[in-house]
Amino acid sequence: MNAVHIRPATISDVPAIANFIGKLAEYEKLSHAVNVTDDLLRQHLFGANPAAEVLMAELDGREIGYALFFQTYSTFVGRPGIWLEDLFVLPQYRGKGAGKALLTAVARIAAQRNCGRLEWSVLDWNSPAIEFYKSVGAFPLDDWTIFRMTGEKLNDYLR
Q1: Which of 1, 80, 105, 114 is buried most, with the most CB atoms less than 10 Å from its CB?
Q2: Global pTM value
Q3: Which of helix, strand or coil describes residue 67?
Q4: pLDDT digits (tens, 9 = 90+) for 58-72
């Protein structure tokens, strides 16, 4: 088998990224929450002020997965960090090293940028992902709870 190749995404990858986001949402049983469009991805990933970066995983010239991440900042550590928002590999290519290659590439970027942290969240029922992350030395932060404010709740708060 050939090796997985990781490369930075380009604007021409937007349709593939949108497709992967849809497949990730389907896997996570969250398809109803997806509102992303190709235009939004072009604007927010490749526009004047990119909000995130994407790495693509390829095998034999075919896109098989992606990682989307962005910079954060830790006041406690006093350095920037990276938040890994999405890491997804097509089901038929799992177990072939693509997920590990994507995670390693993001970790390498974090190290090159002198980041103090690389963090992400995992759905509590996703035991394959949890086991994978533990196997590479990551650990859960059981004493933290993620809060979110979206849509109408966000608008109501601002009124």
Answers
A1: 105
A2: 0.94
A3: strand
A4: 999 999 999 999 999
Q: Strand pairing of 62-74 and 53-59?
A: antiparallel
Residue (of 28, 35, 36) closest to 54 by Cα position: 36
Label residue 127 exposed, middle or buried (CB < 10 Å: 0-12, 13-18, 19+).
exposed
Catalytic residues, by residue number, are: 133
- Rounded to 10 degrees, the C-alpha dihedral 126/139/115/22 comes to 0
Q: Could you confirm whether domain 5-158 is CATH 3.40.630.30?
A: yes
Q: For the chain, what are the domain ranges?
A: 5-158
Q: Judging by beta carbons within 10 Å of its beta carbon (0-12, 13-18, 19+), is residue 26 exposed, middle or buried?
A: exposed
pLDDT, tens digit, for every residue of 90-138? 999 998 999 999 999 999 999 999 999 999 999 999 999 999 999 999 9
